[in-house]
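Worked example 4.2. Below are the chains of a multi-component assembly; read each line carefully before continuing.
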Amino acid sequence: MRDFPRQATSAMTEKTVLNATHRALGARMVDFGGWDMPINYGSQIEEHHAVRRDAGMFDVSHMTVIDLHGARTRDFLRHLLANSVDKLKAHGKALYSCMLNGQGGVIDDLIVYFLGDEFYRLVVNAATRAKDLAWIEQQAKAFDVQVKERPEFAMIAVQGPNARAKVLGLLHEVDRPRIEKLGKFAAAAAQGPHGMPLFVARTGYTGEDGFEIIVPAEHAVALWEALAAAGVKPAGLGARDTLRLEAGMNLYGQDMDEGVSPWEANLGWTIALDEGRDFVGRKVLEAQKAAGVKRVMVGLVLDEKGVLRHGQKVLTANGDGEILSGSFAPTLDKAVAFARIPVGEPGAIRVDIRGREVPVRLVKYPFVRDGKPCEGI
Amino acid sequence: MSEIPGDLKFLKSHEWARAEDDGLVRVGISDHAQDQLGDLVYVELPEIGSAVKAGVGAAVVESVKAASDIYSPVSGEVVAVNELLNDKPETINEDAFGEGWIFLVRPSDRAELDELLDANEYGELVENEDH
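Applying the procedure described above to all two chains together yields the following structure tokens:
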């Protein structure tokens, strides 16, 4: 067999505080962006279904938490981010945004939380940690904003139709009504088991309702065990990937990177061209918008047997494109993908799978929402 | 993981071969291989009547995360394929050394079987890989 996946053996990989917990559960560990992470605990597909049908939890402690403090932090974020932090009106509200370079390429995608008039929190990707920090620190100087990484935090994402109820049951009773009412894309502090301090955000990367919980590392194992006792199933990064793909969410490095404009990555909805705000990359984005982009990102479904995968060639009437994220989708029992193809009416689209041209269907995505296939998928 | 049956021979690339009483050679992938690949979702079977060559790709198994070529342990003609895998590729995950066989070959040179690893040698290979 070729492309045989290997165990992560490098001593250089970093470990989250839950590493021993994953290993004790029999997880298959892989190197993920320099971190030794669980890809599954036995069956990736069963973990995927557990999240769609009930509640699952992911160790996402490898993600980077960065706190920003200073009187001019909001001004700084108006400059740094392509989405507008002026949309954040109330403390605790969160916003998804791209962080662009001067050429309009995507350095990273992130979530920013508005926690105080002079206090914001960013959560950025693990694989891009070093370049993100360097860029943010460089840009922050002119605004006199303090950039503070928070490696002492772990993070657990609890996702699924029953995820919120199971988390609520573990919170201090005085916090429950407030966290139960927490709106989507909002966060608040709460007390967890044994009084541990939690930062609970109603966000996620699966297309299901749920929370992403930031917890001091020394309490992460106790929180994980309490969640498991409440019936939340451990799920690996393999399931996280198929869940987010079905939900139509981009993965940095696969669906966009510094060589790709947000217009070409279906991230136009995150670009705020609000008046008078001169964010990094804006001029290039406006020029691209005026000229029209050459490539677009689309959703594809394979109705035949087979699997769409990253890097496969996509054939259209206007020339070739390529598969970005592609996988078997467990909720749909067939393969789906994002592809970047030349702009214009594509005609009958085919994908080259090992030398065979296989017809695929162009669809609007997300492919799955709230546990169910979307119409037309 | 299940025991490695003593009557099987192996390629280093984790395919097994079983010499049947009728002189045919049954081919599959090892339990270790299915465990490493994770949930299988698609198997591309060879065509009956097609020629296969030892050490050359004859089938493809796809798990959620990767596609892998399956090399034939021996040269010859494919005389049967496991049609069950079209609907239930997960059979390989459940019973890699039994119900999860992939194709059956009429070998053109049975001496090729002698060049394969025996169960003990393959067991050692897997053990070394895990460390």
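Take a moment to check your reading of the output against the notes. The helical segments of chain B are 31-37, 84-87, 91-94, 119-129. DSSP finds four helices and ten strands in chain B.
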